[in-house]
Amino acid sequence: MLEFISLQGPIEKINGELVLMIPLEAGGDELAKCSRGISEIDGEFLKIKIPEWLALQLRVQEGSTVSVDNENGKFNIHSLDPYRIQ
After folding, report:
1. Cα distance between residue 66 and residue 31, in whole Å
2. In angstroms, rounded to a whole number, what is the distance separating the alpha carbons of residues 76 and 60?
């Protein structure tokens, strides 16, 4: 059974891609178990690439804050400060 993890952090832009870098020590190790196929281990971080279609759906960009968790054994991501659509 997965230990419930809920974390918040910023979306970063690395090499032109939007990513979420989650420290393994802070819970990224648990989140890695439910994010196979969408994540990779990068040093001491779990790296989640945010595809353009998902960034548009979540209304996030570089610097946006998101919340991630592993409720129900799934990787969940929610925008905490979605930008306005004009």
Report:
1. 14
2. 15
For the chain, the domains span: 6-79
Task: In whole angstroms, give the CA distance from residue 56 to residue 6.
Answer: 22
* Two tokens, residue 3: 């230990």
Which helix (H) or strand (E) covers residue 29, if one does? helix 28-32
pTM score, whole prediction:
0.88
With vertex at residue 24, the alpha carbon angle to CA 23 and CA 28, rounded to the nearest 5 degrees, is 90
* Spatial separation of the C-alpha atoms in residues 1 and 21, rounded to whole Å: 24
| CA pair distance 26, 78, nearest whole angstrom | 18
Burial (CB count <10 Å: 0-12, 13-18, 19+), residue 64: buried
- Give the tens place of pLDDT for each residue, 12-42: 999 999 999 999 999 999 999 999 999 999 9
